[in-house]
Amino acid sequence: MDKRDIVITSRIRLARNLKDYRFPVKMGQEEAENVIQEVNSAVAKADSGYKLTYMRDLSDIQKNVLIENHVISPALAERNERSAFLLSPDKKISIMLNEEDHIRIQTIEKGMSLKECWELGNATDDIIESSLDYAFDQDLGYVTACPTNMGTGMRASVMIHLPALSVTNQIEKLLYGVSQLGVAVRGVYGEGTKSLGHLYQISNQGTLGASEETL
User: Fold this and answer.
1) CA within 13 Å, CB half, 107
2) 209, pLDDT greater than 70
3) Rounded to an integer, what distance in angstroms lies between the CA atom of residue 19 and that of residue 147?
């Protein structure tokens, strides 16, 4: 069995915030709308066909479908009145707006494709940063709402399928082992969610003090 048999998808997520704006949790409606429009305008300059969707315009069923397809996070769906997302025409790139951070760029590819995901995410990040000023500290790196995301603001993860280990009750031993290596294990839909169908999301824990390429 090779990695293609167990790695279902690869994902890169970049957390960014705009300079001179409060974090989403502290924002009012007008400030949140300004962030959405600024990012939408920056992305539109690249003429890449992204579609903007406000969470308040979606039904609960539509939100759940987007979560199940890993287009948005459960956290974004909960921020109904002040959040939105941009989706690329091929649906490989989603830009979540006013989730925990102002901007969460997420790229997903099938199989073991972290390099491809990184290239897509980095290019999208460059497009936005060419028009907008990010909150950045020379010593700490990109400033994020959660201190554990400070630095590169990047999470690299793979969704893996481990039915045999789950059935034989060996999964807990494996999860403990990888956690000692600085790797986080989460449920199907990320932090705070459960594993379903023997699927696990494996990602880096640290984002501070290393480059995106190193992670």
Assistant:
1) 18
2) no
3) 17
Cβ(48)–Cβ(88) below 8 Å: yes
Cα–Cα distance for residue pair 23/104, rounded to 1 Å? 13
Q: Which residues pair with 52 in a beta bridge?
A: 86
Q: Closest Cα partner for 126 from 136, 116, 134, 117?
A: 134
* pLDDT at residue 169 tops 90: no
What pairs with residue 86 in β-bridges? 52, 95
- Decide if 119 is inside a domain: yes
What's the domain count of the chain? 1
Q: Which residue shows structure tokens 């025409």?
A: 89
**Strand order across the 154-161 sheet:** 51-54, 84-87, 93-97, 103-110, 7-16, 154-161, 199-204, 183-186
Q: How far is CA 48 from the centre of its chain?
A: 20
Could you tell me the residue range of the domain that residue 68 belongs to? 3-204
